[in-house]
Specification:
alpha/beta, Rossmann fold, six-stranded parallel β-sheet, globular
Length: 1037
């Protein structure tokens, strides 16, 4: 093996990271390595697809084109591989294609998910788990926060909020809790619980110490002016200190430290108002600092401990919510792998995944979180230490493009990885294959000028540290970027009656119009910092007749036709919704339906007619499935729509087919159709996106209009100190502490704050770097005609490129290259669209999954909607009960928050639950002692209560899925030996309770099989019980 077994490449934007990685991949294949032994991971599905596509295309082209063969041969030689001939490449390509199903090119999250799926038991994950979508995770977070608010008494809740906020009152309690858990939960998982036990308690000064210092203080005389009067500022400061000695509670020491003599002494000054400060006053202020430090340490320690306790409870409730949904968040998977130490067991991985990793290829590694790195570390260490056996590690990343710190990405993992490689294994790439030299000259001018004088002085070292990774960029000779380009920094023109900060957006739209006139085929990106203005920009562009979209596409309901179809589904789900009824009635759907069999005549705005329509659709959904039920209406609507709307209807029907409901309700499907983003099939050459969304992309023309915001204003939410094995310093986590408080508390809080600020500031610099380096041929930056805030990107660009010139509206502060070069851009062109009918999408004929209640109706009729709504709310209410049979506190608010559209049924549900809980049989069911007796518990046995337990297991060659309402496990010496399965039924039965329960025996027996299979409990030790909620009776099967 002539190439380096270890290689870490720090590659600048556009310098060929993917090219280097695919060359490594192809070189290994040509050398005879098994494709399944190569693991290549990156951070987006788009990037993973690009890697695999690039590998296949380069190899295939080399077998059909002499030029492509020479290019690939040269690349492999540069990468350290022997030069292959065409036959060797063809053999390697055939082997790759034959084993494509075993090829391991994926996102890091997907790789972790595969590992965790193969080790579900070891990782403690629920059977059949999935990665939950964002809206489901947000619902789980909201539910966990609601449970936090309902914990304990009102007095305890107020005390908790008092500690969390250091006594500051807030009416937005839920929002405050959400902010805390959003910012701190990942750190709670990363650090040990004792990390919150800081600062250390500090004893307040004793009365003796105070008296001793007071005597020294009283010996100080206030200086006088030349006229013999007391020096005003000195006298004021001394009187404040004297008041503290007399009445300590009447003086806010933090305010005292903000001015006067105390402030000067804290800042290590020797003079105040040009008068020397005597040592007696220094001793006095030291006493005040000691007193403030003691009280402050107690308050901040209480706040940190309360935060740790809050996060522990939140994590508990979140885990319950995840189990109820049968899934996890993407960040939970690497944590589970770390705890289970899965990657330290290569033999198990080989057996369960039918793969053994010999070569590790890591892409965009600067975006890796510390938890992800901890999960990967055993594999990295194992492969890196086995290079003698031909195993290799290859990594590409760029600390200058580390812009995902908000989700845990840490650029320092590149340095951590390097510690496992042999010395001399790193190199850098700075030649760009993407951007023209004019654009790179602008990039060089900005970042080579850092740090600026008097700019972000407090964080100067962070700026210097970031710049250590920046080297002047040049365009790779002969590469795609080696063409004329253009870069400009402009001041926005004035627009009558418009805020100056809005003018850059208007100019950006006009710039797009100019580019399209010069080159209709150019790809154009408008990059912004935040999401909130994207939709407005897209709408404004469309008003000008410009086809524009958001990166990743727009919600399907941006098509009016799809919006009407979704409104129809809303009406089917909620027949009483007058807004949806109006939207549907005033659409073309009634006229289309009049030509179809079975639909009633009349005005759909009439509630009676609308009821008949929704009843008919529910019946058809139940009989034929949702796809066949609405496809005729979708087909008819597509025939009278624009080509764009027709395509969006087709995309909607595809989503309906893929996500057809199975639980009798349409709400999740409707939410998905309203929120899920899909790119238009026709594509848009003009896209508006955040800089983060543009990561990894390149566009012919890039426009930056959102530069006046405070990009570099940093305010850490958390301060952290990692444990150091070389010292006795324990790991610490703390809520943010103000600058003056840091001065008072001293080490290590100022250092912790600088470290947190450093990460945020460097990420902001990286965001600007990424934004500027997305451009291939033209980069236009537009700033307002007002002096920009010092912490803004506009200020940095104005100071570097603009040389702080006057900000005259409409002027160009910096320009390089010729703006007319955009006219030379030749794109791939738009393929002519074809008028194709929307295919009628029938229900899937693929194998179905068995559920325990398949005998029940899948979709409710209008008559049963009332009963099903009560059932939904009753299950939610009973889910709140652990071993206390009293009605849960604030139940009405909890039900209305989780099911706002069923609020009209809440009162009836509360009454139903209250009657049920009054029955003795029901009380016995929820009583801990009674449950222990029923399960014949022995001494030291423990009860484990689980609610809303999803399961998935194979029984009799069928995949059985379901959710158990309430499961009680009897744990003996670490193993479950008995169980009680409880199912809640809110149905109304005409016969006896026992007959009613017997109708559900098959369902409950399937639960028994699932529990037995999952927990290894003998079926005879699993009791089956049904709670008939309406009567409070409990039936044992």
């Amino acid at each position: 093996m002539s190439f380096s077994p270890h290689l870490l490449i720090r590659a600048s934007a556009g310098s060929g990271k993917t090219h280097s990685l695919t060359s490594r991949f192809i070189g290994l294949l040509v050398m005879g390595e098994d494709p399944s032994g190569i693991l290549a991971v990156t951070f987006t599905r788009l990037a993973a697809g690009e890697i695999m596509e690039r590998v296949l295309r380069r190899m295939l082209s080399a077998t059909t084109s002499t030029a492509a063969l020479k290019e690939l041969q040269a690349s492999l030689v540069t990468a350290g591989f022997p030069q292959p001939n065409e036959e060797q490449i063809a053999v390697a390509l055939r082997r790759l294609l034959s084993e494509l199903h075993r090829c391991n090119v994926s996102t890091l999250d997907a790789f972790f998910a595969r590992l965790a799926t193969a080790h579900t038991f070891e990782c403690g994950l629920p059977p059949g788990w999935t990665i939950l979508e964002t809206e489901k995770l947000e619902a789980i977070q909201a539910g966990a926060i609601q449970k936090l608010l309902s914990m304990g008494t009102q007095v305890e809740a107020r005390l908790l909020m008092h500690r969390l906020s250091r006594g500051s009152a807030s009416s937005q309690v839920a929002n405050q809790l959400q902010a805390i858990v959003s910012h701190a939960h990942d750190k709670y998982l990363e650090f040990p619980p004792e990390a919150w036990l800081n600062p250390e308690p500090i004893a307040a000064p004793s009365d003796r110490e105070i008296q001793f210092v007071r005597e020294q203080f009283e010996s100080v005389e206030c200086p006088k002016t030349k006229s013999g009067t007391l020096q005003k500022n000195w006298n004021k400061s001394l009187e404040l200190i004297r008041t503290w000695f007399d009445q300590p509670a009447s003086i806010d020491l933090m305010k005292l430290f903000e001015s006067g003599i105390a402030k000067k002494i804290l800042e290590s000054e020797t003079r105040f108002d040009s008068i020397d400060i005597p040592d007696e006053l220094r001793v006095t202020v030291e006493l005040l600092v000691h007193s403030a430090r003691a009280s402050m340490a107690a308050v901040i320690r209480a706040q940190n401990i309360a935060t740790g306790e809050l996060l522990a409870n939140y994590d508990h409730f979140r885990a319950i919510g995840l189990r109820a949904r049968g899934g996890v968040g993407y960040q939970d998977v690497p944590q589970a792998l770390v705890i289970a130490d899965v990657l330290a067991s290569p033999g198990t991985i080989l057996y369960r995944l039918d793969a053994s990793t010999r070569h590790l290829l890591l892409d965009e590694f600067q975006d890796t979180s510390m938890m992800q790195f901890a999960a990967l570390r055993p594999l990295i260490e194992e492969i890196a230490s086995d290079s003698a056996e031909g195993r290799t590690v290859f990594c590409v990343g760029d600390p200058k493009q580390a812009i995902y710190g908000w989700r845990g990405g840490r650029a320092e993992v590149l340095d951590l990885l390097e510690q496992y490689l042999v010395p001399g294994s790193s190199m850098s790439l700075d030649d760009s294959y993407r951007s023209s030299q004019e654009i790179l000259d602008g990039v060089n001018e900005v970042f080579s000028s850092l740090p600026l004088p008097q700019w972000l002085e407090e964080d100067r070292q962070a700026v210097v540290s970031w710049c250590e990774n920046f080297h002047d960029h040049v365009t790779a000779s002969g590469g795609p970027g080696d063409t004329p380009g253009h870069v400009a920094l402009r001041v926005a023109r004035e627009h009558p009656e418009r805020d100056p900060n809005i003018c850059p957006y208007i100019d950006a739209i006009e710039e797009v119009e100019k580019v399209i006139q010069k080159s209709p085929e150019a790809s154009i990106a408008i990059l912004v910092r935040k999401n909130k203005n994207i939709a407005k920009m897209v709408a404004a562009l469309r008003e000008r007749g410009i086809d524009a979209s958001e990166e990743g596409g727009n919600p399907l309901v941006d098509s009016p036709a799809v919006g009407r179809l979704v409104a129809l589904l809303e009406l089917v789900e909620h027949p009483g919704d007058a807004t949806m009824r109006f939207a549907v009635a005033r659409s073309p759907l009634p006229e289309i339906a009049s030509k179809l069999a079975g639909f009633p005549s009349g005005d759909w705005l009439d509630p009676a007619v609308a009821e008949k329509v929704t009843t008919l659709l529910r019946a058809r959904i139940h009989q034929s499935g949702i796809v066949d039920a609405i496809a005729p209406l979708a087909d008819g609507l597509a025939q009278i729509c624009s080509l764009e709307d027709r395509s969006r209807i087709h995309q909607m029907m595809e989503q309906v087919r893929l996500r057809k409901p199975t639980n009798g309700r349409l709400q999740e499907l409707i939410s998905h159709l309203r929120n899920h983003r899909l790119a238009s099939p026709s594509g848009s050459r003009v896209q508006v996106m955040t800089v983060h969304q543009a990561k990894g992309l390149g566009r012919d023309v890039v426009i930056l209009p959102e530069l006046s915001a405070d990009w570099f204003k940093v305010l850490p939410q958390l301060l952290e100190r990692k444990g150091n094995p070389e010292s006795t310093d324990p790991p610490w986590l703390s809520r943010y502490i103000k600058k003056l408080e840091q001065q008072i508390l001293q080490h290590p809080y100022p250092e912790m704050n600088l470290q947190a600020r450093r990460r945020q500031l460097q990420e902001s610099l990286s965001v600007l770097y990424v934004a500027m380096t997305r451009a291939k041929r033209s980069l236009t930056m537009i700033i307002p005609a007002t002096r920009p805030p010092k912490a803004s990107a506009a200020y940095l660009l104005w100071s570097t490129l603009g040389q702080s010139q006057p900000l005259v509206p409409g002027t160009t502060l910096f320009e390089k290259g010729d703006a007319s070069v955009v006219g030379d851009i030749i794109g791939e062109g738009d393929s002519p669209s074809q008028d194709a009918p929307i295919p009628t999408l029938g229900a899937s004929t693929t194998g179905s999954t068995m559920t325990p209640s398949m005998h029940a109706s899948r979709f409710p009729s209008l008559r049963s909607l009332h009963a099903q709504s009560l059932g939904t709310l009753a299950h939610l209410a009973l889910e709140q009960i652990d071993w206390d049979v009293t009605e849960p506190r604030d139940l009405t608010a909890a039900l209305n928050k989780q099911q706002p559209r069923l609020a009209s049924f809440t009162g009836e549900t509360i009454e139903l639950i209250g009657h049920c809980l009054e029955q003795e049989t029901c009380q016995q069911l929820f009583d801990r002692e009674a449950t222990l007796q029923r399960l014949e518990a022995q001494e030291n046995d423990e009860l484990i209560l689980e609610r809303e337990v999803p399961f998935s297991c194979e029984i009799d060659q069928n995949l059985l899925n379901g959710i158990i309402d309430r499961l009680v496990l009897l744990n003996r010496s670490g193993s479950a030996v008995a169980a009680e399965v409880i199912d809640f039924k809110t149905d109304q039965f005409s016969g006896s309770a026992l007959d009613a329960a017997e109708k559900h025996r098959e369902q409950l027996e399937s639960y028994r099989k699932a529990v037995s299979r999952t927990w290894g409990i003998e079926p005879t030790m699993i009791a089956l019980r049904i709670l008939l909620v309406r009567s409070g009776e409990v039936i044992t099967l």
